[in-house]
Amino acid sequence: MCTVAVSIDPDAEIPLILVGVRDEFTGRPWLPPAEHWPGLVGGRDLQAGGTWLAVDPAARRAGALLNGHGVLAPETGRRSRGELPLLVAAEGRLPDLDPARYDPFHLVLADPGGACMWHWDGAELREERLPAGTHMIVNSGWEKGDENGRVAFFRPLFAEAARPSALDGPWEEWAFLATGAGLAAEDPRAMIVRRELPDGRVYGSLSVTLLAVTPAGIRYDFTGAPHDPQSFRRITLPE
Predict the structure, then answer these.
(1) How many Å apart are CA 224 and CA 183, to the nearest integer?
(2) What domain count does the chain have?
């Protein structure tokens, strides 16, 4: 993914909301979210076999992955970053592993108690805890200032959005923001993007995920039509 927004309010009925926008080459094959792994739900990347976002419904946890900047892993022994959201969603932590076998990443773990994230730039692995509030993570990492135009535009909007009072509560405002708030793809602030490259390939936003994470359960809404706030569908989670 290229954008993750996390809203944390420990006193709310829905203490954590996560928005995830996946950007990728349009020709890369994938499957929409389902229980592609026992007990874990997420979209499946058919090229590498992993995912960009995984949910463990029983544990009330989710893991979300963004590509980072830094030194790439050596070809020999390189592992797919797509396995990382599955690991943290299933275990509730980043297990012992050799980060040098992965290309740079930002990895978010979210549950009803809040969220933490790990950053790997090819040289140093760091862990941070996200405090209460509204946060945005992009390929450059957790952007806390306003230097990034996308973050400067969208973070206040997410912070001001009306929070649903229950898992079945209204999502219209969140769906509108998560699908780009009407900005054109060429707008430098855009969260939903599309770029035609000189070699004929197209890179752009392929899907959007909306998660509400509570002690009682998770609401998982998904769309493969990133510009359409009416296109979200509820993903059925195993009990």
Answers:
(1) 18
(2) 1
Q: How many CB atoms lie within 10 A of CB 189?
A: 15
Q: What is the dihedral of CA 221, 50, 215, 92, to 10 degrees?
A: -160
Q: With respect to residue 171, please indicate whether it lies within any of the assigned structural domains.
A: yes
149 DSSP assignment = H
> Is the pTM of the predicted complex or chain greater than 0.90?
yes
Domain boundaries, position 39: 3-61+133-234
- Find the angle CA(63)-CA(177)-CA(55) to the nearest 5 degrees: 15
In a domain, 165, yes or no: yes
Residues 101, 74: Cα–Cα separation, whole Å: 7
Domain assignment of residue 100, yes or no: no
Residue 124 lies in a domain: no
Q: Give per-residue pLDDT as tens, 52-96.
A: 999 999 999 999 999 999 999 999 999 999 999 999 999 999 999
Q: Go through the chain and tell me how many residues it has.
A: 239
Do 208 and 223 contact (CB within 8 A), yes or no?
A: yes
**Phi and psi at residue 33, to the nearest 5°:** -60, 135
Residues 133, 131: Cα–Cα separation, whole Å: 6
Tokens for 115, please give them: 């969220």
